[in-house]
Amino acid sequence: MKTGTMRAFLILCLILVALAGAGCSSLGVQPWERDLLSAPGMQLQPDPVVTALDDHIYFSKEASTGGLGGAGGGCGCN
Amino acid sequence: MKAALASACGLLGIAGQPAEATEVRTAILGYSEQDRVQAFEAVIDATHEFGGGKIGNLHVVYDALSGASPSGAVPSQALQSFTRPSGNGVYTTAPGETPLDDTFRDTRMAVSGSLTLPLDRVTGLTAGLYGSGEHDYSSLGANLALTRDFNRRNTTVSLRAGYFDDTINPEGGRPAPFGVMLDQALSPRLDGDGSKQTLDLSLGLTQVIDRRTLVGLNYVFSEVDGYQTDPYKLVSVVDPVSGEPLDHLYESRPDARVKHALLAKLVRQVGAHNLHLSYRYFTDDWGVRSQTVDLRFRWNAGPALYVQPRLRYYHQGEADFYRRFLVEGAAMPDHASADYRLGAMDDYTPGLEVGITRDNGHLITLRAEYYLQTGESHPAGAIGQLADQDLFPTVKAVIVQVGYAVGL
């Protein structure tokens, strides 16, 4: 990997960790307020099977990759 | 269980010390394009919570594809004949028709597994392996993910790395880049199999905003090195006046690609229902730029029934080396591909999913979607007869999925 790209990625990592440690600390809920957040419909990826099937379809028909997971690979996909 | 499983994906973080539990999701999917590709796919995804925050996952996919795929060659006013990719036989295309390679038939099996281990109360490490095979393509991969919760588990940061090693062994061997497709004979071939290596790095942030709102941000960096040409795709060389194809060359793509994707997602409870909205921006050094908006609204009609309409919109700009055709006598570019997937396009996916929870807690899901892909049918610069041809036929596909899940 190119040095410049790696440096940019590390800087992004540091920014996110700093955000997580400080900037976001005023947001959120108490543990006893998670009732709604624990519902199936409130998960970022409610159904991993649907996500995987969609990724495969769109990887085969379009030139973009990358979502909530990694970019993935492993398909000839005509 | 739910929160613990989500932590395996690096979404909500390690959740306490739940008891052992297993969740199995299965689905079968049919994908059918009008006059083109037909696909059948079956998936099993099993997750087991061993206790103590240790989670194992196994994901198995089988798919079978058949039908016709555009070769990249342009239509002609005359009958055209093409050598099959294997070199065995010829297929013909009627005047005015898009040349379709009708020998497209493949099955693929993919297996992946992962194990998540808690490193401490708020940190988890996931290690995974991946392997897939089809008759002309195989892939092996490994990945590592580290997730850490902050701020009373309202914030989760995840860092993932993945590596894939793919091998391509096309029927008849790999055509030489820009080699002329010969009549009923094999064109010049490259030695040996093709291979490519992919390095993925991703960085994610999940933040609980309030009791009803959750946001996720994910950046994915991907570097691909090696053989990325599609050995079955052609680029036509046309007459500068008539636009009639004179030759068909095998395409040529760069052997390096660096991709960046940034995805933002919002999940919000609206009344008793759930709104899912995501936006992705994608760019790479092939010149492809795309934007994706995906909206789902889960209408919770009751404790045992939800109805979820969905609309996805995708806009893509063409790759720098996308050429619908080459012109005889003009300077040859370093690379060229007429693969429609590298062209400019606008795609729309409206759909509906229904989920029914049975008395025993098992979940049945039904999903039906329509996929519409549109591109430049009559691009500026189409020469002679090409101005009258459809150079990017619209793709229309129906997607139907049935799922069954236990242990949720």
Describe what you observe in this structure.
- The complex is a heterodimer of chains A (78) and B (408).
- Helix content of chain A is 45%, strand content 0%.
- Chain A has 78 residues and is mainly α.
- Chain A starts with a helix and ends in a 17-residue tail after the last helix.
- Chain A is flat and about 45 Å long.
- Chain B contains one helix and 23 strands.
- In chain B, the strands form four sheets. Chain B has a 16-stranded antiparallel beta barrel. Chain B has a three-stranded mixed sheet with strand order 15-14-20, with no helix packed on it.
- In chain B, a hairpin with a 2-residue loop joins strand 7 (123-134) and strand 8 (137-150).
- The radius of gyration of chain B is 24 Å and the shape is globular.
- At the A-B interface, helix 1 and helix 2 of A face helix 1, strand 1, strand 2, strand 3 and strand 6 of B.
